[in-house]
Design goal:
Length: about 60
């Protein structure tokens, strides 16, 4: 169940990995590489529902190397 702060749903690495049928290390790598736009909160990655929808629709920024 996602964390909700001020009406914004935040998904954890575990939740995103389950939704995308991926592994937790892969999801963490996506955050570090900028493929998923998230933020660390208390040392753990989280992504908003809107950013997850943008990623799934293909509307996300290209990572800068």
């Amino acid at each position: 169940m996602p964390l909700e702060v001020s009406g914004i749903k935040l998904y954890s690495v575990d939740e995103v990995a389950e939704m995308l049928k991926s592994t937790k290390p892969t999801i963490r790598a996506y955050f570090r590489e900028g493929k998923l736009m998230g933020r660390k909160i208390s040392g753990k990655w989280h992504i908003t529902e809107d950013n997850l929808k943008n990623y799934l629709s293909g509307d996300y920024p290209v990572p800068v190397k």
